[in-house]
Structure formats: structure tokens, C-alpha cells
């Protein structure tokens, strides 16, 4: 399976709406995003068609309209972006990524503790192998 192309920020916004909805027409999605984005129907339709071409969305004809549905789960798309950032920008090293998360996101003590526990579990699993 070939890797998926990048999504623009606008495409991510549209995908978030589609992931939340699970399926919908261009009209449904345009109405969902009207207040937040102010996008015209034609803009939403063009982005949906582009997302179909990129492999993120599938479309099927229902009567005289197309209904769109995510082809890629949100979690998979997020992991793809994170992997890309680590590989391309951090030369494959995860430590700078985690460091930036901790520093820039002002993680709470409980979140840091949760990360520490997670790392300890992974290290214990490594030792078992």
C-alpha cells in the first residue's frame, strides 16, 4: 500500500467534521462548517473530491448526490503525521519530540507521571523479550 499524501490544514478541518459525522454529503459538511469556516459548497465539494483522490475519503452515489465517508481512521492519520515529523524533521529520534511535548504543552505532573509509567512499561516489555 502506497503512503498517503499530506493533508492541508483545511483538509484536516474537513476531515475532523467527517470523522465526527461518520458519513455525510457535501451539503451536510458545508452546513457543519459554515459558521466556523464560512466555506461555500463548491469549496467543500472540491476538498472532498481531493480527499477522495488522496485516499482519505470514499464516495458513493446515493440517488442524485454523493455521500462521503472516511476511508482512514483519525488515529491512523494522526500517527502518519507524527511519524512523518519524527522521520523528516527529527531524523528519526523520538526524544526531541517528547521533550518538546513536555516543555511546550506544559504537561501536568499527572501527565508526566503517566508518560513515565508508559515508558517504564515499554522498557519492562523490552526486558522480557
What does this protein structure show overall?
This protein has six helices and three strands. It has helices spanning 9-21, 26-37, 41-54, 74-89, 95-104, 109-128; strands at residues 24-25, 57-62, 65-70. A three-stranded antiparallel sheet has the order 1-3-2. The longest helix has 20 residues, at 109-128.
List the helices and strands and how they pair.
Layout: H1 9-21, E1 24-25, H2 26-37, H3 41-54, E2 57-62, E3 65-70, H4 74-89, H5 95-104, H6 109-128
Antiparallel strand pairs: 1-3, 2-3
Task: Record keyword descriptors for this entry.
129 residues, mainly alpha, elongated
Which sheet architecture does the biggest sheet show? 3 strands, antiparallel
Contiguous low-pLDDT stretches (5 residues minimum) are none
Percentage of residues in DSSP E strands: 5-15%
Shape: elongated
Rounded to the nearest angstrom, the distance between the terminal CA atoms is 30 Å
Q: Which sequence of SSEs, written as H and E, runs from N to C?
A: HEHHEEHHH
Task: Tell me the total number of β-strands.
Answer: 3
| Portion in helices | 55-70%
Radius of gyration: 19 Å
Work out the helix count: 6
Mean pLDDT: 91
Biggest sheet, strands in spatial order? 1-3-2
Structural class of the helices, strands and pairings? mainly alpha
Amino acid at each position: 500500500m502506497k503512503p498517503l499524501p499530506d493533508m492541508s490544514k483545511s483538509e484536516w478541518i474537513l476531515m475532523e467534521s467527517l470523522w465526527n459525522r461518520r458519513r455525510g454529503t457535501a451539503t451536510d459538511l458545508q452546513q457543519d462548517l459554515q459558521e466556523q469556516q464560512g466555506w461555500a459548497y463548491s469549496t467543500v465539494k472540491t476538498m472532498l473530491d481531493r480527499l477522495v483522490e488522496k485516499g482519505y475519503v470514499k464516495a458513493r452515489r446515493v440517488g442524485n448526490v454523493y455521500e462521503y465517508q472516511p476511508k482512514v481512521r483519525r488515529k491512523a492519520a494522526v500517527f502518519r503525521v507524527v511519524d512523518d515529523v519524527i522521520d523528516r524533521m527529527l531524523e528519526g529520534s523520538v526524544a526531541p519530540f517528547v521533550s518538546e511535548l513536555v516543555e511546550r504543552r506544559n504537561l501536568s505532573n499527572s501527565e508526566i507521571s503517566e508518560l513515565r509509567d508508559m515508558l517504564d512499561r515499554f522498557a519492562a516489555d523490552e526486558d522480557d523479550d
